[in-house]
Amino acid sequence: MQHLKYGLVSGLLLVCLIVTIPDANAKVLFEEDFEGGKLDETKWHPKAEWKIMKPEEKLAALGKGIMDTAAGQANTTKKKDFKDFVFEADFNAKKDGKITGFVFAAQDLANNFYMHQISATGSGHTPNNLRWHIRLKGAWQVFPEAFLKGEKVDPEIWYRSRWFIKNYNFKVFVLESEDFWKDPRGAKMRKIADWTDKSRQFRSGAVGFRASGGEHMQYDNVLVYEDGDDPFAVDVSDKVTTKWAKIKTRK
Question: How confident is the model over 176-189, as pLDDT tens digits?
Answer without folding.
Answer: 999 999 999 999 99
